[in-house]
Amino acid sequence: MGRIFLEPELYHENQFKQVKRMSIGGRRKSVKGKRKPKHAHLYLAGPRVGTSVGDERKYDRSLSAIKDRALKGDAGISFAGANGPDEFRELSSKVYAKLAKRIIEALVVDGKPYLPRHGYLHVNFPHVTDKTCNLESRFHFVLTAEKPTKLPWLLQKMCGKTEFPLEKDIVHKDGCFVAISFETTATLMRPRDELIVIRKLMPLLTCAYQK
Which Gene Ontology terms cover its molecular function (predicted)? Predict the structure, then answer.
């Protein structure tokens, strides 16, 4: 796999058995003199072909891989795209890459930790065609939850709602919405951890889903 330099380093390799992985982190020399991550600070997996909500999550190997890393205390993001394997593949790949980059940059711009310990993001991209959702500027990023969950005060004030929009509702909603769910493998979700993630993603987030 090739390298994609983002900030400070992004290395793409086949690290998981069946899931492609990208990671941001420290580097060490390999046998051939190239440098590879010694330990990643942020793991990226996907995108899965097809949405990843509800029961679909059980079969999402990208999500499973990221959960495994989170159990070890590593931050990560799993991505899923609504497009099928042959549906506008080149176009959707370019669009998804640009959207993923915006999310990653929002997390890393202020430095580590990129996510709270044991935390990870699960991201669903909408369907892309040559006529709809084909430009980065058309997308809205929405912080969602898999199950009914109370919104932290910061988003209650911003959106005028008391609960997160459900992941499945945003994923299946008409329009160009990117559903971002922050989750944890810890026993309980700490409110302060939610606030850390919200503050990092705030420049991206929208309440446009209410319209």
Answer: hydrolase activity
